From TrEMBL:
It comes from the Eukaryota. Keywords: Repeat. Signal peptide: none annotated. The lineage of its organism: Eukaryota, Viridiplantae, Streptophyta, Embryophyta, Tracheophyta. InterPro entries: E_motif, PPR_At4g14850-like_plant, PPR_rpt, TPR-like_helical_dom_sf. PPR repeats lie at residues 22-52, 54-89, 156-190, 293-327. This is Pentatricopeptide repeat-containing protein. Pfam families: E_motif, PPR, PPR_2, PPR_3. PROSITE patterns: PPR (PS51375). PANTHER family: PENTATRICOPEPTIDE REPEAT-CONTAINING PROTEIN, TETRATRICOPEPTIDE-LIKE HELICAL DOMAIN SUPERFAMILY, DYW DOMAIN-CONTAINING PROTEIN. GO terms for biological process: RNA modification.
Length: 338
């Protein structure tokens, strides 16, 4: 109600000045804060509500919590409070809870949600089934993910992409690529998310040639514009295969912003293959993109040290101290010279 036409500040002013605030009014302002990623304010309003919350109230809070790194368990606890009040979770609730379950990798809760959706006839919803495929896949339950997929009468691009990503995530690259072939044969048009799964599968399996082929097919056959994530996957697979200069050439020619993922993939593989020159380029780029990430300094310093360039390694150590950085636990700054 409020947020569709006015700013968050104006909406809050309208809310505060409202003489009578029923549950719809409360839900509107709570949802507005939740959608604005101001979860703390949404929770505070939820806490001070002077009317009885309904399912929509809880759905807004659960969905907001499920999107935060430290809110997964809180989202599940909020759902339990909702049920204690006699309110039944609906499709919106279940979809949000699935995201929370993925966050804590709790396959038992995913099974409970799946069972509840079947008992309450929510299960046929294609969005829920695609969510279940993703959830089971992320927890390593590929058989269950596949079972949900084959039980679907109409498999859209989201369902296919979810299954491809599930196999790719668990290192079953060949199966992921086989599913992609089946998708093409079923005349379902892949999108950018589909190709992210395909490229990640190639990366996990070290299939550099295949990755380049799929990257070209994505643009030439399907007209899907490559995003920063697509380019980062391509850089990653080329770097892992030792094609470091080829990976760097991809970075130089990227028409979109080069992300830390792409530079990080190149830097990590430079350490693996002992490539100092490109490591310096990638490291310096990362210092600009992620100035507060000590891992980049540590990796480049180790590359220097392993190639006998101890002064440069020591220089990076001093730079970290100057910036107030600390190496992550398990990292060592011992520079040994014979």
């Amino acid at each position: 109600m409020y947020g569709k036409c006015v700013s968050l500040v104006s909406a809050r002013q309208l809310f505060d000045e409202s003489p009578e605030r029923n549950v719809v009014v409360w839900n509107s302002i709570i949802s507005l804060y939740a959608h604005s990623n101001d979860v703390d304010s949404a929770l505070e309003l939820f806490r001070v509500m002077d009317v009885v919350p309904n399912s929509s109230t809880f759905n807004a809070i659960i969905a907001a919590l499920a999107e935060t790194e430290d809110g997964f368990s809180k989202a599940i606890l909020c759902n339990r409070k909702m049920e204690r009040m006699g309110l039944r979770p609906n499709l919106i609730t279940v979809l949000a809870l699935l995201r929370a379950c993925i966050g804590i990798a709790d396959v038992n809760l995913i099974k409970q949600i799946h069972g509840y959706s079947i008992r309450n006839d929510i299960d046929p919803d294609p969005q829920l089934r695609s969510g279940l495929i993703e959830a089971y896949g992320r927890c390593g339950c590929l058989d269950k993910a596949h079972h949900v997929f084959v039980s679907m009468r109409n498999r859209d691009v989201v369902a296919w992409s979810s299954l491809i990503s599930a196999y790719a995530l668990q290192g079953q690259a060949r199966t992921a690529l086989e599913v992609f072939k089946e998708m093409e044969m079923a005349n379902v048009r892949p999108d950018g998310i589909t190709f992210l799964g395909v490229l990640k599968a190639c990366s996990h399996a070290g299939l550099a040639d295949e990755a380049q082929m799929y990257f070209a097919r994505m643009r030439d056959r399907y007209g899907v514009e490559a995003s920063s994530d697509h380019y980062a996957c391509l850089v990653d697979v080329l770097s892992r295969a030792g094609r470091l200069h080829q990976a760097y050439d991809v970075i130089r020619r990227m028409p979109v912003k080069v992300t830390a993922k792409a530079w990080g993939a190149l830097l990590a593989s430079c350490r693996t293959y002992g490539e100092v020159e490109l490591a310096e380029i990638a490291g310096r780029a990362l210092f600009e993109v992620e100035p507060d990430n000590p891992a980049n300094f540590v990796i480049l310093a180790r590359i220097y040290a392993s190639n006998g360039r101890f002064e440069e390694a020591e220089g990076l150590r001093r730079e970290m101290i100057k910036r107030g950085m600390k190496a992550a636990p398990g990292s060592s700054w011992v520079v040994h010279q014979d």
